[in-house]
Specification:
Strand order of the largest sheet: 1-3-2-4-5-6-7
Largest sheet: 7 strands, mixed
Helix content: 40-55%
Number of strands: 7
Distance between the termini: 34 Å
Strand content: 15-25%
Shape: globular
Radius of gyration: 16 Å
Number of helices: 10
Length: 219
């Protein structure tokens, strides 16, 4: 299940949005509303087993689905003539980073909001110390933002709430430190994925700046 949300004004760019581990694309509509109102069209995807999408999600089949959908939509008339930005939110930062790494010549930039370093690292936050060795052995990450980010040369924007209690701050720091330049960091005062709610105008400004930086690198 997918949806393409278009602005009522001239389109200045396309965001391909990968949502987090809870809810579905309708849950994240308010997260992208300021960007749509400012002129971005947003393509959103329900992972397998989320929203109206059928099936059972796994890390691997989500990656296959995401790449398949990316290849289909990148050639659509509504999208092929506009710059494309990959946007990942929370757990969606993992697949967003992988898709950006694997398709660098076809996109303009990457936005990571509430970044998780890896599926394994996230699992380790909820288990006792005596079980962590077992978790590291059996809860594996077939791809991870902390590794994939090392290969991405595109402009990148990292968005992080200073009061985020959902994802440990050090996970975001690991990915940011591993990232190549150009990269920009925006730490706002707020909790997990609250940038659009608390600072909609600044969010738009940051993404606009990212798009302008991308156009300078790829005239």
């Amino acid at each position: 299940n997918t949806i393409l949300i278009k602005p009522e004004i001239t389109v200045k760019g396309t965001l391909i949005y990968f949502h987090g581990s809870s809810g579905n694309i309708t849950t994240y509509i308010n997260h992208i509303r300021p960007l749509v109102n400012s002129g971005y069209q947003v393509f959103m995807i329900d992972f397998r087993g989320y929203g109206k999408s059928t099936g059972v999600p796994t890390h691997n089949n989500i990656a296959v689905d995401a790449q398949y959908i990316f290849e289909k939509i990148i050639v659509l008339d509504e999208i092929k003539n506009s710059p494309v930005i990959i946007y990942g939110a929370s757990m969606g930062t993992q697949i967003a980073t992988k898709i950006a790494k694997d398709n660098q010549t076809k996109i303009s930039a990457l936005v990571l909001d509430g970044t998780i370093s890896s599926f394994t690292d996230m699992a380790l936050t909820s288990v006792p110390d005596e079980q962590k060795t077992m978790v590291e052995q059996y809860v594996t990450s077939p791809y991870s933002a902390k590794n994939d980010i090392k290969e991405i040369k595109l402009p990148k924007l990292f968005i992080q709430g200073s009061e985020d209690k959902t994802v440990p701050f050090e996970q975001f720091e690991t990915v940011y430190e591993n990232a190549l330049t150009p990269k920009e960091l925006w730490i706002y005062r707020g909790e997990h994925l609250e940038s659009a709610k608390l600072y909609p105008e600044e969010l738009v400004q940051k993404v606009d700046k990212l798009l302008n930086l991308s156009s300078q690198k790829n005239p």
